[in-house]
Design goal:
By secondary structure, the chain is an alpha+beta fold. It is built from 2 helices and 5 strands; from the N terminus they run βββααββ. The strands form 2 sheets. The protein has a 3-stranded antiparallel β-sheet with strand order 1-2-3, covered by helices on one side. Helix 1 packs antiparallel against helix 2. The chain is globular. InterPro entries: cDENN_dom, DENND1A/B/C, Tripartite_DENN. It holds the Pfam family DENN.
Amino acid sequence: MPREPPSPAVQHFTFALTDLAGNRRFGFCRLRAGTQSCVCILSRLPWFEVFYKLLNTVGDLLVQDQVSEAEELLQNLLQQSLPEPQASVRLELVSSSHSLGAGP
């Protein structure tokens, strides 16, 4: 019976950059085994779950060679204003069936 190849492992990690005034900027990263690059998001917001969900969506798009869709998703995100506490955020791609929702 043939064995299935192991699924590609994905690692997530976070780091914090602190300036001289004590202000922090968080780095959220996703590294897929066998790749030569890492996808990272820098933010002043410690939204671990939201950014890891976003990184997974972007990573999945990149693995499928859907670079323009990943760029569209990130551009749509940049155009959004910060949500109120406990509010939900939903981003959709016009060019595909991918969507990203985060919130309570």
